[in-house]
Amino acid sequence: MDAQMAEEMRTHLAMETEAKVAAGLSPEEARYSALREFGNVASAQERTRDEHGWVWLELMFKEIRLAVRSLRRAPGFSLSVITTLALCLGPNTAILSMLYALVLKPLPFHDPDRLVVIQNIAEKSGGAKRVSSVVQYRDFSAHADRFEGFGYFGSANYTIGEEGAPVRISGLRIDTGLFTLLGIKPVLGRAFSPDEEVPGKDHVIVLTHDNWVNRYNADPTVIGREIRMDGEPFTIVGVAARSVESFLTDIDFFMPYAVRPDETGPWQRYAGSVRLLARLKPGVSFEAGRAQLAVLEKEFYDGVARPQMRAFLDAGGYHIAATNAREELAEPVKTPLWLLQGGAALVLLIGCVNVASLLLARANAKRPELAIRHSLGAGRATLLRQMLAESLLLGGFAALIGIGLAVGMLRLMNHYLPLVVRHVPPVNLEMRVVGIVLAVVMAIILTMAFVPFGLLWRAGLRMGDTPTASTGRYGRDMIGALVVLQMAVALVLLIGAGLLIHSFARVMAVDPGFDATHIVQARVVFPLGKYRDPNANVAVQKRIVEAMKTIPGADAVSEILDYGVAEKYRAVPFLSRGDAATGQQAQSQIYLTSTTTDYFATMSIRLLAGRTFRDDDELTKNPVAIVDQAFAQRYFPGRDVVGLEISLGSNPPPPGKPWIRIIGVVARANLAGLEARDGWPFVYLPLNQQPSNGFSLLVRSERPEADITNEMRTRVSAIDPALPLYGGGTLAAALDKMLMNRRALMLLLGIFAGLALMLAGVGLYGVLAYDVSQRTREIGIRGALGASRDQIVALVLRQGMVKAGLGLVLGVGGAIYLTRFLRKMLFDIQPTDPLAFVGVSLLLLVVALLASWLPAQRAAKVDPVIALRSE
User: Fold this and answer.
1) Is residue 464 scored above 60 in pLDDT?
2) CB-hemisphere CA count at 13 Å for 569?
3) CB-CB contact of 343 with 749 (8 Å)
4) Distance between CA atoms of 794 and 842, rounded to whole angstroms?
5) Are 353 and 88 within 8 A, CB to CB?
6) What is the pTM of this model?
7) CA-CA distance, 342 to 745, in Å (whole number)?
8) In 10 A of CB 292, how many CB atoms?
9) Angle at 155 between CA 149 and CA 157, to 5 degrees
């Protein structure tokens, strides 16, 4: 195109020259005359190129090349901006991906907004959520016409593997309509049919997609294969879609829910055996659906429930709840993730303020270059384009590094998040989140270019400007206000982290009530169908416990029905014989577990009154119980509870059945975690001579945990190779794991707070250093007029501390408002804890003083003669 354009112009000039020669001019005069009339050839070529519309791209490439050369000459500035933005964008991208995937993203099912989880809420038991039952499912399915359908599922744990290497796997028993309710189909094989919901015909399973891939290598011939679970044959009939694992996580298979006759009686309505899902009809609100279910519950209460059942419901304050499935699934992680996202966003804000300060200083340093280019004819668009190219390079590199950091953070969080919150699926980098981050980066890039340029243009670009020429009072005031905001935001984050740290220290200071050191726990479960005979069950329990005592270095051995420590225990109401005699209803809830005679000695739980269990204590013949100190203090203050008789449940024992007699009181043991210090009291029943489907073994020994676990596995396998031993580990580690949620939140918010403190300190230092560079002449004049070095230092220090003080005032006010959202995460302290507020404020002032001291020392070293001469 350029060659054609040059040929056209050459031809035109040749023709014009020939015409003038014909008019009588000499060839040389004719050529010069034609050139004069045509004008500047190069300028005409440039105008022609501009009309083709691609010149902007060429100019942009030129500006980018110029920006690359310019940034290479300032590596410290470039590295500071890229590092600051990358450190701010990385955590925001990672946490926003977690927030979107686990809280905001719709479930991958048909019309997920109409899916609800139905639960029973025990309002008088701390708002505890109780799962539903087959009885409620059948009632709601038959009469709740505001719903399209219902589905339910319950847990199903089995043992698989050859003898000597058994493995415990988790699955779900589901009704045949659950997959239809969710709107999903198997990717391989088929789903269940209604005739398979019958005991004896339910030995068919559908594998989860991950289990199919990991255990069976995605083999399509797996359909029809028979596997043995708990020693019984099961046939694989299908593979479920991966989407179901976003809702039902940490499972390996599905099997039909074969309803037993004892699950269908009215008294089983609140048995808490299954989780109930439902789908609302189009246009029906959650409240309208819940209201209809509440009417059905009222009809059962008034017309079907027995007096004992009514007393149970009244004591617990039960009511029905219908919650959006997405909200219910996100409940454990929603508040921590929103809190972390807020902290990450505040760090990003601080980082952007720092970058804005650096760019303004950079633009001011380039003032002479920009003034020269402007005087040579470069317009506003040209100069802005140059600054935009530099911002594009800096922001682009920061975005790439930040996304890389986010990928690494997500991998780390996927490793630890299941330890903090159970049943959480892994999270990958979400493309929608990447799009949002890129949009934020583009906004930052435009701001990085337009704001400094606008301030410079407002102050004017004149030949003779120096790098220390002022950007104007408006620019200085704006940067000062941003620094104040920076300090305020940093203080809010620091106070939030300080509250969590102080709260964590309070939790760690709680006395667990037992000695968790050197105790190894592991769980044994009997396969279904095996050891159903009570005598055989009790006999093998005794053999296992006796075998544990032969482990070298085992100082004490005991058995407990549940885990040694666990987040959840069975909570049941109880009734004392004295209350029953006066017609009173059942007392509040208690945690219930069963133990053997050596349990309290193994755990080092102190006996306060009465006695512990003996080998002849049996729950069936002579029922006895041991209660903890919290039981006595909460329900029978000032009374001796030894000898008191109670009944578990809301009613007295049936005729002919004895009351349970309390034989001892032990110290409070926080088996549900240190944070459950004020939870329900514990009541211990004797496990002696009691058959069980599974139990936990506790072995106290100073030998390494791995050695003891191997010894335990060897001895269990010697008794029965089909028995699995799983869930091993130290009791101290299990207790510590229960604090993972609090510890992780504290550490992440602490990291954000530390990063914010560092950025705020660097930002204050940068602003003061920039201000000192701009005020070199003023400082020189002050020195020439007799100002001492101490006075100049005090001048700069005062400027920095005033900004820090204003930020402190704003930050304290913001923290008082925002920390109220931390109330549920605090333990034993208030959101306005003075220790956190005062300690963090002093820390911020120290950092501000240090950040102000360095520029002040630089200002004090300004030589008046050199400063004035350079100006």
Assistant:
1) no
2) 27
3) yes
4) 20
5) no
6) 0.78
7) 13
8) 19
9) 150
